[in-house]
Structure formats: structure tokens, C-alpha cells
Specification:
Length: 207
């Protein structure tokens, strides 16, 4: 009887924990955006000043609308002109210009429709021969490094467990990389779970 109760308890955890944790993360993010953005909304257009209770998700909605508006303005000639002038000012500020340029280049690379960054999961031997890790390709090695090495190299980001946002940049010869036929999302799940979640190949496309 105790064995059955234990099994039921573990099954209950497996069923409810993912749902609870997912909702907790979503609500925490919504609350964070509300706390950061809602206070800077002018009182005369802030519904929280007129309604009996605060509107949940208002900060996230305002942020989304603001980004769409900025994108719309920047797309025309006037917005593009203002953006260029702003960048010229930023590029004259020591230290700030380094962070700005780096962040801009990373975002432009990741958001480009034809970008190959983080589109492929691969296997490579690291930190020694016979030991394999999962990494993500971020593009071919070019520029000064390419001119110096003279062989075809691939930039590979090897994330750490359980935090995949930190890791190592490795420049690996293309011949030493094994491409995995898997989804990038599934590869990240395997890394975060320390291998508990097994990595399955993509289903074959019969179309």
C-alpha cells in the first residue's frame, strides 16, 4: 500500500510541477514588467489610477506597443535619421560605445532571417579526445582568425549545465564537428537537465 501511495505521490509531482513552475515563471515575468514599466506611465493615461485594482500585464502590453511604435518610426526616413545621429553620439562616449556596438552586432546577427547562429546542434570532442559535448554553431570563422589559420573553422558555443546562457566559444575545424539531426530546443533541454532528458532525432519529413 505504501509503495502505491509513493508512486501516486511521485506521479502527482510529475504532473503538477511542470504546470506550476511554468505559470510561476510567466506570472513572475509579468509582475516584473509591471513593476518596472507601470510607474513610468503618465497618470492621465494609466488605467491603474482610475480602476479599483491594477491591470495585470499592463507593463508587458505597454512595452510591446512601445517596441512596435519604435520599429515603425525607425522604418521611415525621419526615424532612421534620428537613429543614425543618436548612434554617432553614443560612439563618441568611451566604454559605452564598446558595449553598444557589441550588443547591437549580436542582436542583428541573431535576429536576421538568414542568420545561421544557433540553428544547428553539434557534437565535438572537448575538453579532450574521447569526451563529447553538445554545442551550437554560430557561423564560420572569418576575418583575422581565418587569415591566420588558413583552414575551414566553425564557431561553436558550448553551454554549461544547468545554465545554458554561460559557456565557451570554441573555433573548431569543420572536419571535427558532427552535426546532430535534432531540434535546438531539444538539445537545450538535454543540457539544462544534465542529460536526464534524452535527445531524440528529428522525425523524418515524408512530405
Amino acid at each position: 500500500m505504501f509503495a502505491k501511495i509513493k508512486n501516486y505521490f511521485l506521479t502527482g509531482i510529475l504532473v503538477t510541477a511542470p504546470v506550476v513552475i511554468t505559470f510561476w515563471i510567466v506570472f513572475s515575468l509579468v509582475k516584473l514588467f509591471d513593476q518596472l514599466i507601470t510607474p513610468i506611465i503618465p497618470p492621465y493615461i494609466n488605467p491603474n489610477f482610475y480602476l479599483p485594482r491594477d491591470v495585470p500585464g499592463l507593463g508587458l502590453i505597454v512595452l510591446f506597443a512601445f517596441l512596435v511604435f519604435i520599429g515603425f518610426i525607425t522604418a521611415n526616413f525621419f526615424g532612421s535619421y534620428v537613429l543614425k545621429k543618436t548612434e554617432l553620439v553614443i560612439q563618441k562616449i568611451p566604454l559605452i560605445k564598446v558595449f553598444y556596438k557589441t550588443i547591437k552586432q549580436i542582436l542583428e546577427t541573431l535576429l536576421k532571417n538568414n542568420s545561421n547562429a544557433f540553428r544547428e546542434a553539434v557534437l565535438l570532442e572537448y575538453p579532450r579526445k574521447g569526451v563529447w559535448v553538445i554545442g551550437f554553431t554560430t557561423g564560420e570563422v572569418k576575418g583575422a582568425v581565418k587569415n591566420k589559420i588558413k583552414i575551414s573553422m566553425i564557431n561553436v558555443f558550448v553551454p554549461t549545465t544547468p545554465n545554458p546562457t554561460s559557456g565557451f566559444l570554441l573555433m573548431v575545424p569543420k572536419s571535427q564537428i558532427k552535426y546532430l539531426n535534432v531540434k535546438v530546443d531539444d538539445a537545450i533541454k538535454t543540457i539544462v537537465s544534465a542529460g536526464i532528458i534524452q535527445l531524440d532525432a528529428k522525425p523524418k519529413d515524408n512530405s
